[in-house]
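hiii so um. not sure if this is the right channel but i have a protein structure encoded as tokens and i wanna go backwards to a sequence. like what aa goes where. can anyone help
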């Protein structure tokens, strides 16, 4: 897939909320399209939303990347449309975040729902390491796993044996 990553404005960012809210873990955590839409539109106004497109298509994936979190950047949200899964969309968004954050910061962080084994495997393959467990952060009885990787060391990519 030939992916192009770009900044999304508020309207484009908000338009992604419906499909994201229908996916796990957001659905199971009680997120609504309206709430995610407000969040994404706000982050779009701050120029913190990045999307992946192939050609002139609708975005295949979206990421929200905040700056200045624990001396690094933080991928606060990363979602890939189900029909674009396993095509490098998520990796392209993480690489974009690593490259952009790495201009100013040493670390790139993210978190994943502790029950989302696929997300934890995905981030581990991209070089992230678990640095903490945050119980009850988003919802009582659920834990978020805090993950970190260096912004140095070149592009992210799938590699076996990542820590």
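sure thing!! here u go:
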């Amino acid at each position: 897939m030939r992916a192009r990553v770009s900044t999304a404005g508020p309207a484009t960012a908000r338009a992604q909320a419906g499909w994201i809210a229908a996916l796990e873990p957001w659905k199971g955590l009680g997120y609504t399209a309206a709430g995610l839409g407000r969040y994404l539109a706000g982050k779009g106004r701050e120029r913190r939303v990045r999307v992946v497109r192939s050609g002139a298509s609708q975005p295949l994936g979206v990421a929200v990347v905040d700056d200045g979190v624990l001396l690094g950047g933080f991928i606060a949200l990363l979602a890939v449309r189900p029909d674009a899964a396993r095509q490098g969309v998520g990796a392209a968004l993480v690489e974009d975040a690593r490259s952009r954050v790495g201009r100013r910061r040493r670390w790139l962080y993210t978190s994943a729902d502790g029950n989302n084994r696929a997300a934890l495997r995905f981030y581990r393959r991209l070089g992230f390491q678990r640095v903490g467990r945050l119980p009850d952060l988003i919802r009582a009885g659920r834990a978020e796993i805090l993950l970190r990787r260096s912004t140095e060391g070149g592009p992210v990519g799938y590699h076996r044996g990542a820590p």
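oh and The first helix runs from residue 10 to 15.
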